[in-house]
Design a protein that fits this description.
six-stranded mixed sheet, 15 strands, 21 helices, alpha/beta, nine-stranded mixed sheet
Length: 526
């Protein structure tokens, strides 16, 4: 075989193998580029994708082996044998492309770099097999084995790029830090918490917007790169306040974010059991969230919720400038007379001798708590109570977080971005406030480590009395169903579905007035 033919075949093979590796890249992206996240996905899916690669490998290998063995004496038989490998690879790519992804692979500069390097490695492997295989019979059979090594080659490319990516990210962070330091009059606020931080960020931005020119991190941009890009590309001299949402999955994540922003004010909304699989314990979550307070400037202000035992403990152990907000009468900012239902939430907000009625379109009994924490911060920065009430009243629900969508007799409560036990409890409570047939569709709770089974069974128990019908999806469905039926829900009102499409189809068959809660739509790596 000529060098030209080997090079062409190697390039074609590399393109196909790279396309076949997109799922591995997607899992890396969803796992914040941590290889352990990919291995966790393998474990959670019982190596389903490894088996798919094995199937492609087996059929390619056997087709090529049999064909070349039988017809190897004929001219061009080796090329026709190679076609079987290409057809199997193309079939795999086409079938994979037809599958729906909740969070598709985003071709960011980092993914493009990973794609290019993976392609080069695949090309080298293909060339090595075709050129070094020696006998035609052997080398074509070996080419058919390459799909089995896709995960390992992709992860190897990821590891090779890791030092560069780390330096590249560090460059963004250093640039953002210097830019923030060059604006000494900018008020910098960090918000963290196991839940409620995105809603709190939007609330605070709206409140402060009545007096200041405010920039906040968009959507759920709560990572080092997300914050750094917001600062580098969006922050300008006209801004007076910068509000940064800070997320974490590992100990030290908040400290890293705080080192970039160096906030004057830190807000902790709550500490709970989210991401226990990566943190290991609630104590580690507590420690990580408190990194924000440790990262405040010497004269910084720490604001805590009194409605969470862990944040209350933080308040009590914090020295210096601090505020407490919540449902207790001894808080700096407190609330009471809470009423919530299908149309929103209303309550009384108190600060010193001043008391005002607040009405919000946002749903859930957690809303007054978040408003009080944000109001404490806004009041400290000179925003009046009337402006706070106005800002809260104008605030629209955050997309996919207890967002109500009405269509005739059908009401959808979209809480797809919620993934914690407390949030699920609040969402079910909201569902219970609606009239008509009440339906919940959920895959349950994830990333809770050893506590995951008990947490999902408890969630199932809380479904009883709040929903009339329940459709549970995926690998945690059995736990959810057991919890629901143990609590008293009838078997015929609880169904286990293979996927979201099946659950939606079955729920759509129920006529009349109904409310459907979509609780925690898991990303593709679960």
């Amino acid at each position: 075989m000529s060098y030209v033919v080997i090079i062409v075949f190697s390039l074609v093979s590399a393109v196909l193998l790279t396309l076949m590796s997109c799922k591995i890249m997607q899992m890396l992206q969803l796992s914040s580029y941590r290889a352990k996240g990919v291995f966790a996905w393998f474990k959670a899916t019982k190596c389903d994708y490894i088996l798919r690669y094995f199937a492609v490998t087996f059929f390619s290998f056997m087709c090529m082996l049999v064909y070349v063995a039988c017809f190897g004496k004929y001219k061009y038989a080796e090329y026709i044998g190679y076609v079987f490998y290409l057809l199997n690879a193309i079939l795999f790519i086409v079938m994979t492309a037809r599958q729906k992804n909740k969070t598709p692979l985003k071709f960011t500069p980092r993914i493009i770099r990973l794609t290019v390097l993976s392609g080069l490695l695949f090309c080298g492997a293909s060339f090595g097999v075709l050129y070094g295989g020696g006998f035609t019979f052997l080398r074509y059979s070996l080419v058919g084995l390459l799909p089995l090594f896709i995960p390992f080659v992709t992860l190897a490319a990821h590891c090779l790029l890791a030092p560069f990516e780390k330096l590249n990210n560090l460059g963004y962070e250093v640039k953002a830090r210097k830019k923030l330091e060059s604006m000494p009059h900018l008020i910098k606020i960090g918000i963290t918490g196991s839940y409620g931080k995105t809603t709190a960020k939007n609330m605070l931005t709206a409140m402060l917007g009545k007096k200041y020119n405010v920039l906040s991190t968009p959507a759920s941009y709560n990572t080092p790169m997300g914050i750094a890009k917001t600062v580098n590309y969006d922050l300008n001299a006209s801004h007076e306040v910068f509000v940064a949402e800070m997320g974490a999955r590992y100990v030290g994540d908040i400290a890293r974010l705080a080192s970039i922003v160096r906030p004057n004010i830190g807000i902790v909304t709550a500490v709970g059991d989210q991401h226990l699989a990566t943190f290991g314990s609630v104590e580690k979550v507590y420690e990580t969230k408190y990194e924000l307070i440790k990262g405040l400037s010497a004269d910084g202000l720490a604001v805590f919720s009194a409605d969470n035992g862990h944040t209350l403990k933080m308040y009590e152990s914090t020295q210096g400038n601090k505020m407490l907000a919540g449902g207790r009468s001894d808080c700096d900012v407190s609330y009471g007379d809470v009423s919530f239902g299908a149309e929103g939430t209303s309550f009384t907000l108190r600060y010193g001798d001043e008391s005002v009625a607040v009405v919000s379109k946002l749903l859930g009994r957690h809303i007054p708590s978040l408003v009080s924490v944000c109001a404490a911060t806004a009041l400290k920065l000179g925003v009046g109570m009337d402006d706070i009430v106005l800002a809260v009243g104008e605030l629209e629900p955050v997309a996919h977080r207890l967002q109500v969508i009405k269509n005739g007799d059908v009401t959808v409560i979209d809480d797809a971005y919620n993934s914690n036990t407390k949030g699920a409890e609040i969402a079910l409570e909201v569902l219970g406030a609606f009239d008509g047939m009440r339906i919940v569709i959920t895959p349950g709770l994830v990333e809770l480590g050893d506590a995951e089974q008990n947490a999902n069974m408890e969630m199932g128990r809380k479904v009883f009395g709040k929903a009339d019908r329940a459709y549970f999806i995926g690998s945690r469905a059995a736990w959810l169903k057991q919890g629901a039926t143990d609590a008293g829900m009838l078997e015929e009102n609880v169904e286990i579905c293979a996927d979201l499409d099946e659950a939606v189809r079955k729920s759509s068959e129920i006529g009349g007035k109904k409310t459907v809660l979509f609780e925690n739509d898991l990303p593709d790596n679960f």
